[in-house]
Write a structure and sequence with these properties.
mainly alpha, 434 Repressor (Amino-terminal Domain), 6 helices
């Protein structure tokens, strides 16, 4: 699920910011796409959203380079 969709349905920017220890302005910038979610916060967001927003959702263009263990094995 996209971060924007999660925040609209499940909780606000301020709530997530508090849960992961950042300022609401950061979450707002990530929500709107003005800035990419820094790698260091992706796991915390995945945990805070109970897996509804995954690292793959947050970093769709480079997650496989950052977390290769998440890549599905192809046979």
């Amino acid at each position: 699920m996209k971060l924007e969709n999660f925040l609209e349905k499940r909780g606000g920017v301020i709530t997530l910011a508090r849960q992961i220890g950042v300022v609401p302005e950061d979450v707002s910038a990530w929500k709107t796409g003005r800035r990419n979610v820094p790698i260091v916060h992706c796991v915390a967001i995945e945990r805070a959203t109970a897996g509804q927003v995954t690292r793959k959702d947050l970093r769709p263009n480079d997650w496989q380079d950052i977390w290769p263990e998440l890549a599905e094995k192809r046979e």
